[in-house]
Each structure stands twice: as structure tokens, then as C-alpha cells.
């Protein structure tokens, strides 16, 4: 675990630095444009390129040295961040520059995620994969919790340019940790051998590998469905909380969510998760759906606090167990391609959730629970009527759908028995 821990620490510092830049650029765009749409486009450009390029990235990660892929990723993302800093210093920064830089960083992050996940399998003993993935979730939670607080203070003292330069230093630190270690090469079988030709089947191999294993396909579809629900909810958390509380409360809710994720990461890294990881995925997804339902059904500050902690605690446990399942069931030599397809398909539903959430609220759910809306005399008597209650109703629907999807996943035997029926790679 020592080599992995060193790499993990470098990635932790890099994640915190990236969180500082993400916060600072968001502030800059919103202050200079006053447009929520232009602000939201940052999230779209941060995710979409990574999803689209995943099949190519998977092939390259399996062909190249995975340490080299991570070095390339950190170097590329660091240079794009440095370009933004230089444009800021020269007073020539435009909003479209940020979109381009974020898109470039997104492409490099696709290499980073696939290579990091595949390298973990080679660096960490199988029995410690749960702990290792708990540490990864811990790093993500630390970034979510610390970056906004640090960035808020640093923007005032050293301005946005200084914050972005700190991010560049964090990339450099991550690069140094990668240069200090060596990764073992994955063992290949004739079946796993990567052919040195750019044939179509190299790009479809990950999909073929997954579809040949019903349990893995079921797991992929399950997360694609759940991620769609997450996309809808994540966009609407801010307007839901602000409809019933102040901006200060919103900040506290987000911090409590980060704390829940941090605690979940600590528990997962110390414990390693249960022996039957798929049951943990089902259980914590169910509790997440229940917390979403309660936040919509009883919108109040104490409920928001409890729901945020429970939900994000579960996120760490779910992601840690899910990642450990894939790492133990997929042959190391092909993990780049398989994980890339998994990432592309599982995350593709997130932008769809982002896009559909606004129209659903504005045109359907808020009018339904307006003071004189169609449901004011029925469901409105339970949830309430007026601004924000339509979002609450959508949360109730999403929470129920999440629990139904969990029940469906549990009833699908190849998924529930995935760990018993599919041998470890």
C-alpha cells in the first residue's frame, strides 16, 4: 500500500488545488457575466469532453504505461490552468477561454481517471481494494469540503490569479510523486493481448467485455439510471434550499454533505467495506433515495442537514464498493478499455439530468403546486404550496424512483449474485 499511498497523497493535493480553481473561476464568470446559464456551462464543459473521448482513452491506457498516462494528464491539466492564470495576469481573459481550458482539462482527466483506477488494481492487494477506494473517496470529500472554504478566503487575500497559481503548484506536486514511483506491468493472456492496430473492435472491446458478463452489464445500467436521478437532484439542491432558507444555510448544507462524504471515506478506508459489496451498494442507494424523498416531503433546515449527511456518507460507501467490484472482476490488462466504457455510459446520463431538471421544475412541477395549481388541494395539503414546493415534489418523485430502481437491481439475480457467479480476474 505504500506506493499507492504516496500516489494518493499527490492526487489529494491536486484535487484540492483543482477545487480552488473551480471555485475561483465560477466566481469570476458569475461576477463578470451575471448569467446563471454561462456559469452552468462550466459544469457541462467539465464533463462532456471526458465522456465523449472515453473509448479512445481506454484503448490508449491499455497500450501505454499507466504511470505515463497519469503524468501526461497532470502535465496537460496543469498547463491549461497555467494558461488561464497568464491570461488573467495580462487582463485578456474571456469567458470562452475558460470553457476551452475546462474542456482541455476534462480530456486529460479522462486519462487520469482510467489510468488511476486501473493502476490501483496492480498496486494494491485484492483484499485491500475496498480500503484503497475508500481513500480515493476520502480525497474527493476533502476537496469538496476544504476547497470552497480555502478559495473563499484566498480570493480575498491573493485574488483569483494567486489561487490559480496555487493549483499549478499542486499539479507539480502530484507530478513529483508520480516520478518517484514505478508501476508494475499488468500480466496479459492471449485473450487480453492488445493488438497493435487501430481496428474498430479495439474501441468496442470494453462494451463486448461487459455485455458478455450479465452481472457487470446490470451494474452498469443500474448506475446509469441512478446517475440520471443524481443529475436532476444535484442541479436543484441550491434552489430547493434557498426557497426555504438563507444562503448561509445553503453553505452549511453543502459543508455537512462534504463532511458526510469525508466520514464515509474514512470509514471505507479503515474498514474496506463488507464482504458482499453489492449489498452495500444496494443498501446505501436505498438510504440515499429515502433522504432525497424526505428532503422534498419535509423541506426544513434540520431535514436538509440530516439528508445531506446521510446521502453523501452513502456516496463514499457506494463508490468505494462499486469500484472495488470492477477492479476485482475485470482483468488488469483490459481495465483501461473496460473502465472507459463504464465511465462513458454510466456518466452520460448526468448531463441529461442537468438539462431536464430546469424545464421539469419551471414548466411542470412548480405550476402543479402553485397556490392555485392543479395539485394544491391534494398533494399540496401534505407537502405545501408556493415557491419551492414543486421542487420538493420532484424530490419526492426522484426519491421514490431511486428506491424502485434499487429494488429492481436487487431482484435481478445476475446483479445481486455478481460477486458469487463471476470469478475474480
Automatic annotation (TrEMBL):
The chain crosses the membrane at residues 39-61, 68-90, 96-124, 162-181, 216-237, 243-266, 303-326, 338-357, 391-413. It is a multi-pass membrane protein. The keyword Cell membrane applies. This is MFS transporter. SUPFAM superfamilies: MFS general substrate transporter. CDD domains: MFS_MefA_like. InterPro entries: MFS, MFS_dom, MFS_trans_sf. The keyword Isomerase does not apply. It comes from Brasilonema sennae CENA114. Pfam families: MFS_1. Residues 3-417 form the Major facilitator superfamily (MFS) profile domain.
Amino acid at each position: 500500500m505504500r506506493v499507492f499511498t504516496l500516489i494518493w497523497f499527490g492526487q489529494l493535493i491536486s484535487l484540492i488545488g483543482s477545487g480552488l480553481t473551480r471555485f475561483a473561476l465560477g466566481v469570476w464568470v458569475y461576477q463578470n457575466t451575471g448569467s446563471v446559464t454561462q456559469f452552468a456551462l462550466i459544469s457541462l464543459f467539465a464533463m462532456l469532453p471526458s465522456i465523449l473521448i472515453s473509448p479512445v482513452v481506454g484503448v490508449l491506457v491499455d497500450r501505454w504505461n499507466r504511470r505515463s498516462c497519469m503524468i501526461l494528464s497532470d502535465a496537460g491539466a496543469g498547463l491549461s490552468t497555467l494558461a488561464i492564470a497568464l491570461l488573467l495576469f495580462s487582463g485578456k481573459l474571456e469567458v470562452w477561454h475558460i470553457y476551452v481550458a475546462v474542456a482541455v482539462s476534462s480530456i486529460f482527466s479522462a486519462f487520469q481517471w482510467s489510468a488511476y483506477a486501473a493502476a490501483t488494481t496492480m498496486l494494491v492487494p485484492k483484499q485491500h481494494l475496498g480500503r484503497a477506494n475508500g481513500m480515493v473517496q476520502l480525497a474527493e470529500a476533502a476537496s469538496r469540503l476544504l476547497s470552497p472554504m480555502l478559495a473563499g478566503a484566498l480570493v480575498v487575500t491573493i485574488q483569483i490569479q494567486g489561487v490559480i497559481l496555487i493549483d499549478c503548484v499542486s499539479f507539480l506536486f502530484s507530478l513529483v510523486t508520480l516520478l518517484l514511483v514505478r508501476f508494475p506491468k499488468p500480466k496479459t493472456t492471449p485473450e487480453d493481448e492488445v493488438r497493435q492496430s487501430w481496428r474498430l473492435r479495439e474501441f468496442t472491446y470494453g462494451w463486448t467485455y461487459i455485455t458478455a458478463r450479465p452481472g457487470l452489464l446490470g451494474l452498469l445500467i443500474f448506475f446509469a439510471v441512478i446517475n440520471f436521478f443524481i443529475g436532476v437532484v444535484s442541479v436543484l439542491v441550491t434552489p430547493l434550499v434557498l426557497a426555504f432558507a438563507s444562503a448561509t444555510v445553503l453553505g452549511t448544507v453543502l459543508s455537512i454533505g462534504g463532511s458526510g462524504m469525508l466520514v464515509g471515506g474514512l470509514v471505507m478506508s479503515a474498514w474496506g467495506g463488507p464482504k458482499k459489496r453489492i449489498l452495500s451498494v444496494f443498501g446505501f442507494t436505498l438510504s440515499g433515495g429515502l433522504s432525497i424523498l424526505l428532503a422534498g416531503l419535509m423541506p426544513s433546515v434540520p431535514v436538509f442537514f440530516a439528508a445531506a449527511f446521510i446521502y453523501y456518507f452513502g456516496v463514499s460507501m457506494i463508490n468505494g464498493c462499486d469500484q472495488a467490484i470492477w477492479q476485482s472482476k475485470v482483468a488488469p490488462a483490459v481495465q483501461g478499455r473496460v473502465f472507459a466504457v463504464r465511465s462513458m455510459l454510466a456518466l452520460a446520463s448526468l448531463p441529461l439530468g442537468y438539462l431536464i431538471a430546469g424545464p421539469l421544475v419551471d414548466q411542470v412541477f412548480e405550476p402543479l403546486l402553485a397556490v392555485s395549481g392543479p395539485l394544491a388541494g391534494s398533494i399540496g395539503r401534505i407537502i405545501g404550496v408556493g415557491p419551492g414546493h414543486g421542487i420538493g415534489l420532484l424530490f419526492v418523485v426522484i426519491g421514490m424512483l431511486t428506491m424502485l430502481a434499487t429494488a429492481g437491481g436487487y431482484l435481478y439475480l445476475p446483479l445481486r449474485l455478481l460477486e458469487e457467479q463471476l470469478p475474480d480476474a
